[in-house]
Amino acid sequence: MIEEILKHNSEFVAQKGYEKFATSKYPDKKIAIVTCMDTRLVELLPAALGLRNGDVKIIKNAGGTITNPFDSTMRSLLVAVYELGVNEIMVIGHTGCGVQGMNAAEMLHLMRERGVSEEHISLMRHCGIDLDSWLHGFEETDAAVAETMDLIRNHPLMAQDVKVGGYIMDSLTGELRVVG
């Protein structure tokens, strides 16, 4: 599959397909969106929100949540605010998220099945990583979005004038529902 993607990329560049996507690194709408990496949202989310290339910064991860105040998502938000002019943040969860109800024990089982050794799992624990917490999902999407909003709003390095809102997107229709 990667070979096909690379072939397509060569053709895209040769045909100057990139020209219609030209924009700057600064988001025109001054908004950053934290959302899930779910494949259903790749085109649905921008289309449902009327977004075009260059409008916003979109930060995606499993579950669209921030699990720790020093993770890469929070760092990306701080860069977006202080370096790129963002003054509003949308946290957008979605219906039917795969992280909802995710079980750390099951994830570890799947890792072992794919060849991750007990030695490596033990090493992570020995280094202070609480794998049961780190690999655990969330029970309620609304609560996960609310927790992420709270973490952003109360982060010691976040500017207090940044507006933070939370939403749940219907994975089928793209409809947004406000959280909190």
Summarize the SSE layout with pairings.
Layout: H1 2-14, E1 31-36, H2 41-49, E2 56-61, H3 72-84, E3 88-94, H4 104-113, H5 118-126, H6 131-134, H7 141-153, E4 163-169, E5 176-179
Parallel strand pairs: 1-2, 1-3, 3-4
Antiparallel strand pairs: 4-5
* Whole-angstrom Rg: 19 Å
For the sheet with most strands, the description reads: 5 strands, mixed
Structural class: alpha/beta
Spatial order of the strands in the main sheet? 2-1-3-4-5
Give the topology string: H per helix, E per strand: HEHEHEHHHHEE
What's the tally of helices?
Answer: 7
Assess the beta-strand content as a share of residues: 15-25%
Mean pLDDT over all positions: 96
Please give the share of residues in helix. 25-40%
Number of strands: 5
| Distance N to C terminus | 42 Å
* Coarse morphology: globular
Low-confidence runs of at least 5 consecutive residues: none
What labels would you give this structure?
180 residues, 7 helices
What does this structure look like?
The protein has 180 residues and is α/β, with parallel strands linked by helices. It contains 7 helices and 5 strands. The protein has helices at 2-14, 41-49, 72-84, 104-113, 118-126, 131-134, 141-153, and strands at 31-36, 56-61, 88-94, 163-169, 176-179. Strands 2-1-3-4-5 form a 5-stranded mixed β-sheet, covered by helices on one side. β4 and β5 form a beta hairpin. It is globular and about 50 Å long. The mean pLDDT is 96.
